[in-house]
Every structure is written in structure tokens, then in C-alpha cells.
Design goal:
Shape: globular
Oligomer: single chain
Radius of gyration: 22 Å
Amino acid sequence: MKVTILGTGSATPSLLRNPSAQILSDDHEYYLIDCGEGTQNQLIKLKVKANKIKNIFISHLHGDHYFGLIGLISSLNLANRTEPLTIFGPKGLNEIIIIQLRYARTTLHFKLEFIELDTEKAYAIIDNEFITISTVPLIHRIPCCGFLFIEKQKKRNIIKGKLPSEATIEEIIALKNGMDVLNPDNSVKFNFKDFTQEPAQPKSYAYCSDTAFSEKIINQIANVNLLYHEATFKEDLLLRANATLHSTSKQAASIAKLANADKLLIGHFSSRYHDLTENLLEAKEVFENTEIAIEYQIYEI
């Protein structure tokens, strides 16, 4: 599982940072998380084919998290997309997008499905054989939630070059499922432990966008491999953070520490910050394994 950072800025424009957007990818799919203005340009720069995106997750309806959505949808339509696109987001997003399409007299060539989120509770919104994706309730001025991505346990790995060439596809599948292959007399033909090895442990990623400091999310994101948490302000603007229901770098680090996360990425920085050195140092005082989320950087989980 990998996370590609497309934007780390907050509300007002900055030449240094783009608005919030990320791509999470696994072996099967691309997931777009938030879609600030200019997201499709970021995808082009990174050579990520937008047409591969099947699901988009919008955390809340402040513009820096979704103003790029209608442009992306329009471009997909111009590219003659036919595959359905599912958008998860708070109440009202459906109306916002549909009315723009209506007044532009745009008829989509593909099905656009909206899944309205209950941002006040944690629950699975996608649960398939590869991944579970759940909402993470956050505290902000309008309904807002983050997203928790947890891989499912993968099958065992065949040890390259060790399996006899006469092994059938059915036998290989059995071995990958942790089952011995038997002869007709029930003796063991292939012991799965001899020809396979344990798969990597499932990985997890938590995306916590705009939110006031809240320990209510700790249990849900406990032991997460990678946590992205907004850190709009430095600690000297704690009162400003509290008033706007945002977080400081230290508060983001406190969440990572309490959740026993492996690693923390901080982002969603106020445009007032040009040099983020102090923002990072403040967070590292609390949680050492913290990094600044850097645009165009790919983080392996």
C-alpha cells in the first residue's frame, strides 16, 4: 500500500502548496482522498491515470477539500469514461455536483454514484476481499470525517524456484491458502510450509483531515502503520486552532503517540508558513517519527 501526496495546503491559496488531495494505491486500485482545486493537474504531473480511479472520498465540504471535483469529473467525461465512479462524501455533495452539471448542460457518459456519509459514527463503507475502508468521525465546524484503510490478510507467497514444475494451478492455489497437497492415498505430496512463506502483515493508513484535537479517535486508529493528521498551526497559535477547530503540530503528534502509530505525516498547513522547519520540530518533540507530508512524494506503508 502506498500514499502519494498531491496537496498539503489549507484554506487560502499558496504558491508553495496545493490544496488537500492524496492517492492511496494497493495492488488492485487507486483511491482518491479529497480533491482540492487543481487535483487533476497534480495527477497529470505524477502520471497517475485518473481513469483508473473508481472511488473518491471527500472528508467535508470546505472548498479546499473538494473544489477540484467538478473539474475532474468533467475531464473524465471528455475522455469518454464509461466505467462507474463512486463518490463518498457528506450530505449536500450530490446536490452541489449535480447542479453544476445541470447548468453546464453536461450529460455524463458514465454512472456517477454518490454515497452519503454519516460523519458522526465510525463504520465500514467498503469491505471487500482486499481492503476495509471506514469513516473516522472528526470534530470540525461542519460535518467532517477521516478515513481508515486496512488491508486484508494476503495469501501465502510461493517460494520462487522451489515449487516443482508439474504442480497444477489448483495445487498452487491450495498451497497459497495454507493447505497441504495430498496424494490419492492421503499422503502429503506438497507440504505448504516447504513451498510457501508467510505473507507480509496487513498494512493500515489513517487520513485525519480538518479536526480539533480529539482523543475519541484513538481506539479506532490504534497501532496504525501510517497516520496523516492535519497540523494547520504551530503551538503559538493554539487559541486560533481551538477557535477554528483545527490542530497544531504538537496536537497531531500527541494523537500519533496516544494511538501508538508507527509513523506520522503532518499537513494541511496554513499559507502563513513558508518554512515548515519549526512545525516539524514541534511535532518531533512529542512524536519522534514525524515527517512533513511532501507533495509528489510517495510513502510506502
